[in-house]
Amino acid sequence: MIAVSPRIQKRVPAEMGLHDKSMQYLEQSMASWVQSQGALCMMLPAPESGGGVRMATVSADDYAEALDGLLLQGGKDLDPALYGQTPEHIIGEPDPVRDRFELDLVQAFHARRKPVFGICRGMQLINVALGGSLYQDLAAQGASAYSHVESSRYDQHHHALCLQQGEVLADWYGTTEGRVNSIHHQGVATLGRGLKAVARASDGVIEAIWGLGEGFLLGVQWHPEFQDGRDPALLPGDPLMRAFLDAAQQRRDADRA
Ligand SMILES: [Mn+2]
């Protein structure tokens, strides 16, 4: 039973007929990716989203107790205050409700040694949850030699990936080279406690992180849920989902033993 954190849309487009209401949602390929491997996929609504909704009486801890693993979706930039900076290069308004809820979820699942897997923003969030920092904008801060985002090409924008020899990703894929999509303007600057970079782009930008302690803590900067493997040059997403679900299954079995 896999928990997926929500994306939050504060002002829903008029054609959806919800006027000024908020929406929390899950992108389809993320749900398909989880379900295609036989796991149940459950999106967790953030406890409140403003606008006069009733306050929740359940917490991230309650969800972590009930479910087996946490998958963090991509989305908008984190509030730089969370890593001790003022906003200089972020795009859009941060969402404090989503930031807080996801930080609480990472803490709650990881404290129980239940697997946590972050995609794009989700990887950045894991890093910040463990005390690391981000580049607010890779290009503006001179951290990358080429663009990690091309809005007109979106998920068709790819770059080479170097998987660290001897680490989990190289192990699962059986190679140290690959290609992935790239839809991010931010990136990991300093690593959080107990995290290691296990893949990088050829310009040195960190593309995957792994927790060295007990439990399963993985973040990838690309979107494996969009990579269906029909292009043999691209790394398929399924080995990552398989490793995550295997860890969740093991943790669940250990609980019941
Ligand atoms: Mn990239």
| Alpha carbon gap, first and last residue | 18 Å
| Number of distinct helices | 6
Residue windows where pLDDT falls under 50 for at least 5 positions:
none
Sketch the topology as an H/E string, one letter per element. EEEHEHEHEHEEHEEEEEH
> What structural class should be given to the helix and strand makeup?
alpha/beta
How many runs of DSSP E, i.e. beta strands?
13
Which strands sit side by side, in order, in the main sheet? 4-1-5-6-13-12-11-8-9
By CATH's scheme, which homologous superfamily applies?
A: Class I glutamine amidotransferase (GATase) domain
Bound molecules: manganese (II) ion
Query: How much helical structure, as a percent, in the residues?
Result: 25-40%
CATH topology: Rossmann fold
CATH 2nd-level architecture? 3-Layer(aba) Sandwich
Mean pLDDT equals 93
Largest sheet: number of strands, sense, barrel closure = 9 strands, mixed
Global shape: globular
Strand content: 15-25%
Describe the structure.
- The protein is an alpha/beta fold.
- It has one domain (2-49, 58-256): Class I glutamine amidotransferase (GATase) domain (Rossmann fold, 3-Layer(aba) Sandwich).
- Helix content is 25%, strand content 20%.
- It is built from six helices and 13 strands.
- The chain has helices spanning 28-35, 60-66, 96-111, 121-129, 168-173, 238-256, and strands at residues 2-4, 7-9, 23-25, 41-43, 69-72, 116-119, 134-135, 158-163, 177-181, 187-188, 195-201, 206-211, 217-220.
- It has a nine-stranded mixed beta sheet with strand order 4-1-5-6-13-12-11-8-9, sandwiched between helices. A two-stranded antiparallel ribbon has the order 2-3.
- Helix 3 (96-111) links the parallel strand 5 and strand 6 (116-119).
- Helix 2 (60-66) packs across helix 3 (96-111).
- The longest helix has 19 residues, at 238-256.
- The radius of gyration is 18 Å and the shape is globular.
- The two termini are 18 Å apart.
- The relative contact order is 0.15.
- The model has no long low-confidence stretch (mean pLDDT 93).
- Residues 148, 159, 182, 184, 201, 205, 207, 221 line the site of manganese (II) ion.
